[in-house]
Amino acid sequence: MAPPAGEGGAAQTRGPGRGQAQQQQPGFGQTLTGIIRIAVFWYFASKFFSPKRGPSEPSQLMSNLFNKAEPLDMWVYLSENEKFNDFTNEGALIWHEANIPYAVWGPGSSRFYSLKYVPSEAVKNNGSLYAHAFFARSGYPPDPKDPEYQPYAAFGRTHSVVTYLPKSKADKRKSLLGNSKGSEEVEVPPEVNEETQDDSKDDGPTEWVSFWKPNITINLVDDFTGYI
Fold first, then answer.
1. Same domain (yes/no): 78, 151
2. What is the value of pTM for the model shown?
3. Which InterPro entries match (predicted)?
């Protein structure tokens, strides 16, 4: 038996109404997509329409910590240790200069010093020896343990004073002219070359000895370019 017309009509009317209500409710995906679109639009708009930035302020640039012609003090220490921190050892201090103008090249900025050094037994037996050069603004110490020490007011560098070369050995070659003097063994200066390496294979392992560097030159590099 068919249902009454009134009830059937009411049922047909309610059915489409529920579907329309469900379609009108926005989902989470649609909301997220809208947020992403707004963020992308804001990013490109800020890129194209934002005012152009001028050059960075001088305080934001990386530049030399020292000024041209600024007076510097210098200390040079000799030590058998590659790492140096014995600033209170007066015996290790071999050279001290004050008021050296930085980045001023002339007679007034050059310093010279000659030293007569007596090597220790350790250095005589192929030990190492290093020169530790330190610079600081005049009035500031190079010792990090000093209360007045400033990290940005001092700097230093270590340089090896000795170099290692193969030990000199007598030349075993003899003159074929019959000269007695030429047949004597001649000392060959130490050089690292293929001939020395070939001889070392015949005579056994090469013996290396330390040689004193007679001259050390200290030059300060100046660069006043500002970097971002």
1. yes
2. 0.59
3. CLPTM1
Element of type H or E holding 46: helix 28-49
Q: Map residue 110 onto helix, strand or coil.
A: coil
pLDDT for the residue numbered 47: 67
44 lies in a domain?
Answer: no
Whether 128 contacts 82, CB under 8 Å: yes
Contact 68, 224 (CB under 8 A): yes
Dmax (CA) of the chain: 146
Do both 122 and 203 map to the same domain? no
Residue 187 backbone phi and psi in degrees, to 5: -75, 130
Q: Are residues 123 and 203 in the same domain?
A: no
Domain membership of residue 198 (yes or no) is yes
- The tally of domains found in the chain comes to 2
- pLDDT of 167-203, one tens digit each? 877 666 666 665 555 445 544 555 555 554 555 455 6
List the domain range (segments joined by +) for residue 115: 71-160
Cα–Cα distance, 137 to 74 (Å, whole number) = 9
**Residues above pLDDT 90, as percent of the chain:** 32
Among the three residues 160, 176, 192, which one is the final residue of a domain in this structure?
A: 160
Model confidence pLDDT, tens digit, residues 33-71:
878 888 887 777 776 666 655 554 555 567 888 999 899
Give Cβ neighbours of residue 175 (< 8 Å, ≥ 6 apart).
Answer: 182, 183
Residue 80 lies in a domain: yes
